[in-house]
Write a structure and sequence with these properties.
Number of helices: 7
Structural class: alpha/beta
CATH superfamily: Vaccinia Virus protein VP39
Helix content: 25-40%
CATH topology: Rossmann fold
Mean pLDDT: 95
Distance between the termini: 36 Å
Radius of gyration: 17 Å
Length: 214
């Protein structure tokens, strides 16, 4: 956690964070919920840009680390994302790299949308459902290969599992929750910082979505 406490890992720094910040826009004076904040690095980045940030994270060890690092403009709440405590409506809710990692993603997305004031922003980032195993597959074959996309299934990882769902599942749930889609982003890595990771230059490993709450 210490190694990623400032800006996250390489992928967050170069692919995810810049897009999230652009989609959120000027956050000065705005109330922002960082839903599933992890070690809290993005909460602190937003606070440094003038936002009033609340970070939510269920894991005791992780939220304790985040609280130790918290500075002005940031507070952290220990809670399950699908069961948020009563909070005043936020101008924006950001949910970065969480929804694809939890089985109860629909209640979590609903909680995020319900935490946004009408007309506010809900922005989320996930591993791209079409390119989830991009690095390993490209390294093995020199191209990307996939056998199954439409089914929903668990992807076992070294530390935890992710859950594959097609893009339509996320976008249709947004629509069902009354959100208006604003932008979908599939970022590619700048060749100048790719360090030989050709797959991330040619194909997107992440999907970011911005929507306006109804």
């Amino acid at each position: 956690m210490e190694a990623t406490a400032e800006h996250g890992d390489f992928a967050k720094q170069h692919l995810v964070n810049p897009v999230l910040l652009r989609l959120l826009g000027d956050v000065r004076g705005r109330r922002v919920l960082d839903a599933g904040c992890g070690n809290g690095y993005f909460s602190r980045m937003l606070a440094a840009r003038g936002a009033e940030v609340t970070g939510v994270e269920p894991a005791e060890s992780v939220i304790s680390f985040a609280r130790e690092k918290a500075g002005a403009g940031v507070s952290y709440v220990q809670a399950e994302l699908a069961r948020l405590p009563a909070l005043e409506p936020f101008d924006a809710v950001v949910c970065s790299m969480v929804l694809m990692a939890i089985p109860d993603w629909k209640p979590a997305m609903r909680a995020c949308v319900e935490a946004v004031r009408p007309g506010g922003l809900f922005v989320f980032a996930i591993v791209h459902p079409a390119f989830e195993e991009l690095f390993g597959t490209w390294r093995k074959y020199g191209e990307y290969r996939r056998k199954e996309y439409l089914a929903e299934y668990e992807i076992a990882g070294r530390d935890a599992s992710d859950f594959h769902r097609p893009i339509s599942a996320y976008l249709n749930e947004l629509a069902a929750l009354g959100c208006r889609l604003r932008e979908v982003v599939e970022p590619g890595l700048d060749p100048a910082v790719a360090e030989g990771i050709e797959s991330y230059v040619r194909m997107p490993n992440f999907l970011l979505v911005s929507a306006e709450a109804g």
